[in-house]
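re the bet — no i am not wrong, look at it urself. input seq straight from the record:
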Amino acid sequence: SIYCLDNLFFEMKSIVLYPALLLVGGVSTWCALSTSESRGPEIFGVQDTKTSKQPKVRRNIINIDSLRGTLGHWENRLNEIREIPTDLSDQEIRSLFTLIDQLDQNGNEEHLLMINEIMEVLENKYHYNPVFIDSMLEIVSSPLRQDTVRDYAIQHVVKAVVHDPAREGAILYTDASENLQLKHQVFESILTQLNHQANSQALFVGTGINMLGESLQEFQLNDALQHRYDQLLTQVVSGERVLSNYARVTTIQIAARTQGEDIAPVLRRLINDNSQALDIHISAVAGLGITGDTQDLVLLSEISNSSLRSKYAAKAAIKKIQSKAVVAE
Protein backbone atom coordinates (compact mmCIF):
# COMPACT_ATOMS: atom_id res chain seq x y z
CA SER A 1 0.00 0.00 0.00
CA ILE A 2 0.99 3.61 -0.46
CA TYR A 3 0.54 5.31 2.89
CA CYS A 4 -0.46 8.94 3.39
CA LEU A 5 1.77 11.15 5.43
CA ASP A 6 -0.87 11.87 8.10
CA ASN A 7 -0.79 8.19 9.14
CA LEU A 8 2.96 7.92 9.56
CA PHE A 9 2.88 8.95 13.22
CA PHE A 10 0.10 6.50 14.12
CA GLU A 11 1.14 3.35 12.32
CA MET A 12 4.94 3.38 12.40
CA LYS A 13 5.09 -0.31 13.32
CA SER A 14 3.00 -1.54 10.42
CA ILE A 15 3.76 0.99 7.73
CA VAL A 16 5.77 0.13 4.65
CA LEU A 17 7.69 3.21 3.62
CA TYR A 18 7.19 4.38 0.05
CA PRO A 19 8.81 7.31 -1.76
CA ALA A 20 6.06 9.80 -0.97
CA LEU A 21 6.54 13.52 -1.31
CA LEU A 22 4.91 16.43 0.42
CA LEU A 23 2.50 18.42 -1.67
CA VAL A 24 4.14 21.66 -2.75
CA GLY A 25 1.58 22.66 -5.35
CA GLY A 26 0.73 22.00 -8.99
CA VAL A 27 -0.67 18.87 -10.57
CA SER A 28 -0.76 15.81 -8.35
CA THR A 29 -1.74 12.22 -8.48
CA TRP A 30 -2.81 9.57 -6.04
CA CYS A 31 -2.23 8.06 -2.61
CA ALA A 32 -4.05 5.05 -1.21
CA LEU A 33 -5.60 5.43 2.22
CA SER A 34 -3.66 3.61 4.92
CA THR A 35 -6.66 2.96 7.13
CA SER A 36 -7.92 -0.60 7.29
CA GLU A 37 -11.54 0.55 7.11
CA SER A 38 -11.55 1.81 3.51
CA ARG A 39 -9.31 2.01 0.51
CA GLY A 40 -11.84 3.12 -2.06
CA PRO A 41 -11.20 4.81 -5.41
CA GLU A 42 -10.73 8.36 -4.16
CA ILE A 43 -8.10 10.03 -6.32
CA PHE A 44 -6.77 13.56 -6.67
CA GLY A 45 -8.74 14.56 -3.56
CA VAL A 46 -12.08 13.13 -4.76
CA GLN A 47 -14.18 11.81 -1.89
CA ASP A 48 -15.56 8.27 -1.93
CA THR A 49 -19.02 8.17 -0.38
CA LYS A 50 -19.77 4.58 -1.34
CA THR A 51 -17.15 2.58 0.51
CA SER A 52 -16.86 4.45 3.79
CA LYS A 53 -19.31 5.85 6.30
CA GLN A 54 -16.90 8.71 6.89
CA PRO A 55 -15.55 9.72 3.49
CA LYS A 56 -11.87 10.49 3.47
CA VAL A 57 -9.77 12.28 0.93
CA ARG A 58 -6.85 10.61 -0.76
CA ARG A 59 -3.73 12.65 -0.14
CA ASN A 60 -1.81 14.24 -2.99
CA ILE A 61 1.77 13.01 -2.75
CA ILE A 62 3.15 13.29 -6.29
CA ASN A 63 3.48 16.73 -7.79
CA ILE A 64 5.20 18.67 -10.52
CA ASP A 65 8.21 19.48 -8.36
CA SER A 66 8.84 15.86 -7.45
CA LEU A 67 8.54 14.72 -11.06
CA ARG A 68 10.91 17.48 -12.14
CA GLY A 69 13.54 15.82 -9.99
CA THR A 70 13.73 18.08 -6.94
CA LEU A 71 13.26 15.10 -4.64
CA GLY A 72 13.55 11.35 -4.91
CA HIS A 73 15.05 9.17 -7.65
CA TRP A 74 13.64 9.23 -11.18
CA GLU A 75 13.16 5.44 -11.22
CA ASN A 76 10.90 5.73 -8.19
CA ARG A 77 8.89 8.41 -9.92
CA LEU A 78 8.52 6.17 -12.99
CA ASN A 79 7.22 3.40 -10.74
CA GLU A 80 4.67 5.84 -9.32
CA ILE A 81 3.56 6.78 -12.84
CA ARG A 82 3.08 3.11 -13.68
CA GLU A 83 0.66 2.81 -10.77
CA ILE A 84 -1.85 5.20 -12.36
CA PRO A 85 -5.23 3.62 -11.48
CA THR A 86 -7.92 2.69 -13.96
CA ASP A 87 -10.68 4.79 -12.40
CA LEU A 88 -9.48 8.34 -13.08
CA SER A 89 -12.08 10.92 -13.96
CA ASP A 90 -11.83 12.90 -17.19
CA GLN A 91 -10.60 15.90 -15.22
CA GLU A 92 -7.85 13.83 -13.65
CA ILE A 93 -6.76 12.63 -17.06
CA ARG A 94 -6.59 16.27 -18.17
CA SER A 95 -4.47 16.98 -15.10
CA LEU A 96 -1.93 14.42 -16.24
CA PHE A 97 -1.72 16.20 -19.59
CA THR A 98 -1.12 19.45 -17.72
CA LEU A 99 1.77 17.62 -16.09
CA ILE A 100 3.04 16.61 -19.53
CA ASP A 101 2.81 20.26 -20.62
CA GLN A 102 5.03 21.39 -17.77
CA LEU A 103 7.55 18.59 -18.20
CA ASP A 104 7.73 19.36 -21.93
CA GLN A 105 8.83 22.93 -21.20
CA ASN A 106 12.14 21.67 -19.87
CA GLY A 107 12.70 18.77 -22.21
CA ASN A 108 15.69 17.12 -20.61
CA GLU A 109 16.14 13.39 -21.06
CA GLU A 110 14.62 12.46 -17.71
CA HIS A 111 11.49 14.51 -18.34
CA LEU A 112 11.07 13.08 -21.83
CA LEU A 113 11.31 9.60 -20.35
CA MET A 114 8.54 10.41 -17.88
CA ILE A 115 6.35 11.95 -20.60
CA ASN A 116 6.68 8.79 -22.66
CA GLU A 117 5.87 6.67 -19.60
CA ILE A 118 2.73 8.66 -18.78
CA MET A 119 1.55 8.35 -22.39
CA GLU A 120 2.20 4.62 -22.45
CA VAL A 121 0.32 3.98 -19.21
CA LEU A 122 -2.64 6.07 -20.38
CA GLU A 123 -2.56 4.31 -23.75
CA ASN A 124 -2.87 0.94 -22.05
CA LYS A 125 -5.51 1.93 -19.49
CA TYR A 126 -7.52 4.65 -21.23
CA HIS A 127 -6.91 4.03 -24.91
CA TYR A 128 -10.52 4.51 -26.04
CA ASN A 129 -11.23 7.42 -23.71
CA PRO A 130 -12.16 10.47 -25.85
CA VAL A 131 -10.40 12.85 -23.43
CA PHE A 132 -7.19 10.87 -23.83
CA ILE A 133 -7.55 10.82 -27.64
CA ASP A 134 -8.29 14.55 -27.89
CA SER A 135 -5.42 15.46 -25.57
CA MET A 136 -2.95 13.35 -27.54
CA LEU A 137 -4.08 14.85 -30.86
CA GLU A 138 -3.63 18.34 -29.41
CA ILE A 139 0.01 17.44 -28.77
CA VAL A 140 0.41 16.04 -32.28
CA SER A 141 -0.95 19.23 -33.85
CA SER A 142 0.91 21.73 -31.68
CA PRO A 143 4.00 23.36 -33.28
CA LEU A 144 5.02 24.53 -29.80
CA ARG A 145 5.73 20.97 -28.71
CA GLN A 146 9.12 19.35 -28.95
CA ASP A 147 9.49 17.14 -31.99
CA THR A 148 10.25 14.18 -29.75
CA VAL A 149 7.08 14.65 -27.70
CA ARG A 150 4.96 14.86 -30.85
CA ASP A 151 6.66 11.68 -32.04
CA TYR A 152 5.76 9.93 -28.77
CA ALA A 153 2.16 11.13 -29.06
CA ILE A 154 1.75 9.75 -32.58
CA GLN A 155 3.09 6.36 -31.57
CA HIS A 156 0.87 6.00 -28.53
CA VAL A 157 -2.36 7.42 -29.94
CA VAL A 158 -2.21 5.23 -33.05
CA LYS A 159 -1.50 2.14 -30.99
CA ALA A 160 -4.32 3.12 -28.64
CA VAL A 161 -7.06 3.11 -31.26
CA VAL A 162 -5.75 0.26 -33.39
CA HIS A 163 -5.19 -2.33 -30.69
CA ASP A 164 -7.92 -4.56 -29.32
CA PRO A 165 -10.26 -2.37 -27.23
CA ALA A 166 -10.89 -5.27 -24.87
CA ARG A 167 -7.31 -5.53 -23.62
CA GLU A 168 -6.96 -6.66 -20.04
CA GLY A 169 -7.08 -3.80 -17.59
CA ALA A 170 -8.58 -1.34 -20.06
CA ILE A 171 -11.99 0.28 -19.96
CA LEU A 172 -14.21 0.22 -23.06
CA TYR A 173 -15.65 3.73 -23.30
CA THR A 174 -17.36 3.48 -26.67
CA ASP A 175 -19.21 1.00 -28.88
CA ALA A 176 -17.84 -0.46 -32.12
CA SER A 177 -19.13 2.32 -34.38
CA GLU A 178 -17.71 5.02 -32.10
CA ASN A 179 -14.40 3.16 -31.97
CA LEU A 180 -14.20 3.27 -35.76
CA GLN A 181 -15.04 6.97 -35.68
CA LEU A 182 -12.18 7.55 -33.22
CA LYS A 183 -9.80 5.66 -35.51
CA HIS A 184 -10.70 7.87 -38.45
CA GLN A 185 -10.44 10.98 -36.27
CA VAL A 186 -6.91 9.99 -35.27
CA PHE A 187 -5.86 9.17 -38.83
CA GLU A 188 -7.29 12.37 -40.25
CA SER A 189 -5.59 14.53 -37.62
CA ILE A 190 -2.21 12.84 -38.12
CA LEU A 191 -2.48 12.96 -41.91
CA THR A 192 -3.11 16.70 -41.70
CA GLN A 193 0.13 17.16 -39.75
CA LEU A 194 2.10 14.85 -42.05
CA ASN A 195 0.96 16.89 -45.05
CA HIS A 196 1.80 20.23 -43.45
CA GLN A 197 4.85 21.72 -45.15
CA ALA A 198 6.08 23.24 -41.89
CA ASN A 199 6.64 19.70 -40.59
CA SER A 200 8.64 18.48 -43.59
CA GLN A 201 11.87 18.00 -41.63
CA ALA A 202 10.25 16.88 -38.39
CA LEU A 203 11.22 13.58 -36.84
CA PHE A 204 7.62 12.53 -36.27
CA VAL A 205 6.72 12.57 -39.99
CA GLY A 206 8.57 9.34 -40.70
CA THR A 207 7.15 7.82 -37.52
CA GLY A 208 3.62 8.89 -38.46
CA ILE A 209 3.82 7.44 -41.96
CA ASN A 210 5.15 4.19 -40.54
CA MET A 211 2.57 3.96 -37.74
CA LEU A 212 -0.34 4.59 -40.10
CA GLY A 213 1.04 2.08 -42.58
CA GLU A 214 1.37 -0.61 -39.93
CA SER A 215 -2.15 0.15 -38.71
CA LEU A 216 -3.66 -0.62 -42.10
CA GLN A 217 -2.91 -4.28 -41.42
CA GLU A 218 -5.43 -4.10 -38.56
CA PHE A 219 -8.33 -2.19 -40.11
CA GLN A 220 -9.39 -0.48 -43.33
CA LEU A 221 -9.63 3.29 -43.80
CA ASN A 222 -12.55 4.94 -45.51
CA ASP A 223 -11.92 5.73 -49.17
CA ALA A 224 -11.20 9.43 -48.64
CA LEU A 225 -8.53 8.86 -45.97
CA GLN A 226 -7.00 5.93 -47.88
CA HIS A 227 -6.67 8.15 -50.96
CA ARG A 228 -4.98 10.90 -48.92
CA TYR A 229 -2.57 8.41 -47.41
CA ASP A 230 -1.68 6.77 -50.74
CA GLN A 231 -1.19 10.19 -52.30
CA LEU A 232 1.16 11.21 -49.52
CA LEU A 233 3.21 8.03 -49.97
CA THR A 234 3.58 8.54 -53.71
CA GLN A 235 4.58 12.20 -53.31
CA VAL A 236 7.20 11.38 -50.70
CA VAL A 237 8.66 8.39 -52.56
CA SER A 238 8.94 10.31 -55.83
CA GLY A 239 10.51 13.33 -54.16
CA GLU A 240 7.64 15.63 -55.10
CA ARG A 241 7.09 16.15 -51.40
CA VAL A 242 10.42 17.01 -49.78
CA LEU A 243 11.05 15.28 -46.48
CA SER A 244 14.15 14.25 -44.59
CA ASN A 245 15.98 11.23 -46.00
CA TYR A 246 15.04 9.29 -42.87
CA ALA A 247 11.34 9.88 -43.49
CA ARG A 248 11.70 9.12 -47.16
CA VAL A 249 13.51 5.82 -46.61
CA THR A 250 10.76 4.77 -44.23
CA THR A 251 8.06 5.83 -46.66
CA ILE A 252 9.59 3.85 -49.54
CA GLN A 253 9.37 0.67 -47.51
CA ILE A 254 5.81 1.37 -46.36
CA ALA A 255 4.73 2.17 -49.93
CA ALA A 256 6.31 -1.03 -51.21
CA ARG A 257 4.34 -3.08 -48.67
CA THR A 258 1.01 -1.29 -49.01
CA GLN A 259 0.85 -0.20 -52.66
CA GLY A 260 2.58 -3.10 -54.34
CA GLU A 261 3.05 -2.90 -58.10
CA ASP A 262 1.43 0.55 -58.22
CA ILE A 263 4.56 2.10 -56.72
CA ALA A 264 7.02 -0.06 -58.73
CA PRO A 265 7.39 2.46 -61.64
CA VAL A 266 8.38 5.18 -59.18
CA LEU A 267 10.96 2.89 -57.59
CA ARG A 268 12.48 2.04 -60.99
CA ARG A 269 12.91 5.75 -61.72
CA LEU A 270 14.65 6.27 -58.39
CA ILE A 271 17.02 3.36 -59.02
CA ASN A 272 18.01 4.77 -62.43
CA ASP A 273 18.51 8.27 -61.04
CA ASN A 274 22.19 8.63 -60.16
CA SER A 275 21.52 11.83 -58.25
CA GLN A 276 19.67 10.01 -55.46
CA ALA A 277 21.35 9.63 -52.07
CA LEU A 278 22.75 6.21 -51.27
CA ASP A 279 20.19 5.41 -48.58
CA ILE A 280 17.36 6.34 -50.94
CA HIS A 281 18.88 4.17 -53.70
CA ILE A 282 19.25 1.18 -51.38
CA SER A 283 15.70 1.57 -50.06
CA ALA A 284 14.31 1.77 -53.61
CA VAL A 285 16.20 -1.38 -54.61
CA ALA A 286 14.88 -3.23 -51.57
CA GLY A 287 11.37 -1.94 -52.30
CA LEU A 288 11.54 -3.19 -55.87
CA GLY A 289 12.23 -6.66 -54.49
CA ILE A 290 8.82 -6.45 -52.82
CA THR A 291 6.87 -4.83 -55.66
CA GLY A 292 8.76 -5.83 -58.81
CA ASP A 293 8.50 -8.79 -61.14
CA THR A 294 10.78 -10.82 -63.42
CA GLN A 295 11.22 -7.90 -65.84
CA ASP A 296 13.21 -6.17 -63.09
CA LEU A 297 15.79 -8.96 -62.79
CA VAL A 298 18.00 -7.48 -65.54
CA LEU A 299 18.25 -4.12 -63.79
CA LEU A 300 18.81 -5.68 -60.40
CA SER A 301 21.44 -8.08 -61.78
CA GLU A 302 23.40 -5.15 -63.19
CA ILE A 303 23.43 -3.53 -59.76
CA SER A 304 24.32 -6.75 -57.95
CA ASN A 305 27.35 -7.26 -60.22
CA SER A 306 28.54 -3.66 -59.87
CA SER A 307 30.72 -1.98 -57.30
CA LEU A 308 27.77 0.01 -55.96
CA ARG A 309 27.12 -0.29 -52.24
CA SER A 310 23.51 -1.15 -53.03
CA LYS A 311 24.57 -4.41 -54.69
CA TYR A 312 23.75 -6.45 -51.58
CA ALA A 313 20.25 -5.03 -51.50
CA ALA A 314 19.95 -5.93 -55.20
CA LYS A 315 20.97 -9.54 -54.54
CA ALA A 316 18.33 -9.82 -51.81
CA ALA A 317 15.72 -8.25 -54.12
CA ILE A 318 16.52 -10.77 -56.87
CA LYS A 319 15.92 -13.64 -54.45
CA LYS A 320 12.56 -12.19 -53.43
CA ILE A 321 11.38 -11.77 -57.00
CA GLN A 322 12.53 -15.26 -57.96
CA SER A 323 10.73 -16.70 -54.93
CA LYS A 324 7.51 -14.94 -55.93
CA ALA A 325 7.86 -16.26 -59.48
CA VAL A 326 8.19 -19.84 -58.22
CA VAL A 327 5.11 -19.52 -56.02
CA ALA A 328 3.12 -18.06 -58.92
CA GLU A 329 3.90 -21.01 -61.19
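see?? The radius of gyration is 25 Å. told u. also The mean pLDDT is 76. so pay up
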